[in-house]
Design brief:
By secondary structure, this protein is an all-alpha fold. The chain has one domain. The chain is built from three helices and no strands.
Length: 76
């Protein structure tokens, strides 16, 4: 292992950090936040969610644009 490399981490420091993340309060809090973000993400993509609504709006906009372009071609 290169000890002069600033990116090198001591084994015990890494081990302690992993243990804290897996077993400690910080780990519990991190997992709870991750679960909350996951729940919110699922809500956003469900029918009626914010992402679902944005996709519907995009689709409607594209359809209107196509209709408008067809209308312009007919006028020309």
């Amino acid at each position: 292992m290169q000890k002069d490399n600033p990116m090198t981490v001591q084994h015990d420091v890494m081990s302690d950090a992993v243990k804290e993340l897996m077993q400690g309060d910080q780990g519990k809090q991190a997992r709870a936040r991750a679960q909350e973000f996951g729940r919110r993400a699922w809500q956003d993509v469900e029918k009626g969610g914010s992402s679902d609504e944005k996709l519907d709006q995009l689709n409607e906009c594209l359809l209107l644009r196509r209709e408008f372009q067809s209308f312009i071609v007919v006028l020309l």
